[in-house]
Amino acid sequence: MSIFREKLMKKKVCDLAIFGGLPAFEVPLHVGRPNIGDRGRLLERFQKILDSRWLTNDGLFVREFEQRIADLVGVKHCVAICNGTVALEISIRALEMKGEIIVPSFTFVATAHALEWQGIKPIFCDIDPVTHNIDPIKIEQMITTRTAGIIGVHVWGRPCDVDALDEIAHRRGLKLLFDSAHALGCTYKRKMIGNFGDAEVFSFHATKFVNSLEGGAVATNDDQLARKIRLLKNFGFTTYDEIESVGTNGKMNEVSAAMGLTNLESMDEFIEINRRNYKQYAAELAGLEGVTVLSYSEEEKCNYQYVVLEIDKDKTILIRDQLIKILQAENILARRYFYPGCHRMEPYRSLYPNAHTFLPETERVAAQVMNLPTGQETTPEKIRIVCNIIHTAFENAGEIHMLLEEKQRAARGLL
Question: Hey, which residues does 81 pair with through a beta bridge?
Fold first, then answer.
């Protein structure tokens, strides 16, 4: 063991930064720290953009980015959009969704907002406790005469039960859209995510393992739908001065496309780094009572961009939020996802004050799940340090829980 690492290892409760020890990291270790591909190649592309003075409006890099995604996923059409949220909104409008749409509450709030923003009512459905994805059985119980569609979310890049959702949608005459923000490069039954439902929406936000600074895209095999999406994202223009329908400005710019192309060229490298990190976390945290590292199927392609822990409150006295406080004091900025669930955020908690009563699995998972840092900036050395701190925390769970409870009471002026 290196002297450097020996100094950073935490062996006792008093070594932890939250109780007065030195933080393990001077520079914070983030969840979702942006990956960056070949800088030289990126700067070459930026130079071409500046030389051409073609900065937006379906430039060469945007068109190349769309083709690269279409080829990667194996779909007929990919439409690049300025970000994933607008891509969702445009897809919803192109599909003529209205009334009520069934969605999981365990997702980033943009999934629900993309509906509410357009006057469409999101109906929150519970999740499967194992996969964390929308539960098809529960969907059946929520369909009414007002239901127009379903939005599935491939949480953590692990695919929804696509076959079950597709069967329900076809049998009940519903639109089926997938929020695939987590799932670029992943497969369902060895077929690439992007090929399912009426359309699938990807995100290339800076926190995604392949990013375009900001960006999104819609993948579909439906010719007419692709045409509608292209109209909607460019004000409804069909030619230079001809407008066919209402639209908005959802175009991706050339700089974002250049970043996206550059990072796509490093995609395999990013996945291998993520996979290495995930395997190391899983190995080093194996057997720790009350801690489960969420697993990924070896039968499917996966991008491994999320290292997810479930802290089982029935097996350990140290709860998830206490562990996060311990890690954050060490400058390990672990995060809760997707806490507390869309149904407990505004405006939904006011609109549906009793939603929690029929979302028990969402409530449970949201209270137990957390994400650890991974990606290009997370090295094996750093992971060993993170796992050492987690081990120390759980090996001293009773004492730490008591000390943190005392700190909390003192902060409230109760001591």
Answer: 216
Spatial contact of 373 and 332, defined as CB atoms under 8 Å apart: yes
What's the DSSP call for residue 145?
T
Q: What is the sign of the dihedral through the CA atoms of 331, 332, 337 and 341?
A: negative
How far, CA to CA in Å, does 187 sit from each of 170, 174, 275, 380?
22, 23, 15, 27
H helices of 133-194, in order, are 136-142, 162-172
Q: Report the alpha-carbon distance of residue 370 to residue 383 in Å, rounded.
A: 16
Angle at 284 between CA 319 and CA 290, to 5 degrees: 25
Side-chain half-sphere CA neighbours of 269 within 13 A: 11
CB-based contacts of 143: which residues, under 8 Å, 6+ apart? 102, 168, 172, 174
Identify the three-state secondary structure at position 294: coil
Q: If we measure between CA atoms, which residue out of 123, 174, 132 comes closest to residue 153?
A: 132
**Distance (Å, rounded) from C-alpha 104 to C-alpha 122?**
9
* Predicted local confidence at residue 415, as pLDDT: 53
What local confidence, expressed as pLDDT, does residue 411 receive? 80
User: What is the set of domains in the chain, with CATH numbers?
Assistant: 3-30+267-411 (3.90.1150.10), 39-265 (3.40.640.10)
- Residue 102, beta-bridge partner list: 123, 150
How long a stretch of residues is the chain? 415
- Report the b/e string of 34-54 with b at 16+ CB within 10 A: bbbbeeeebeebbeebeeeee
Residue 7: predicted pLDDT: 53
Give the integer Cα–Cα distance in Å for 245 and 243.
Answer: 6
User: Which pTM value belongs to this model?
Assistant: 0.95
C-alpha span between 338 and 371 (Å, rounded): 10
Low-confidence ranges of the chain (pLDDT < 70): 1-8, 414-415
**C-alpha–C-alpha distance, residues 332 and 31, integer Å:** 9
Residue 335 Rama label (left phi>0; alpha psi -120 to 50; beta): beta
For residue 239, give the 3-state DSSP assignment.
strand
* Whole-number pLDDT of residue 240: 86
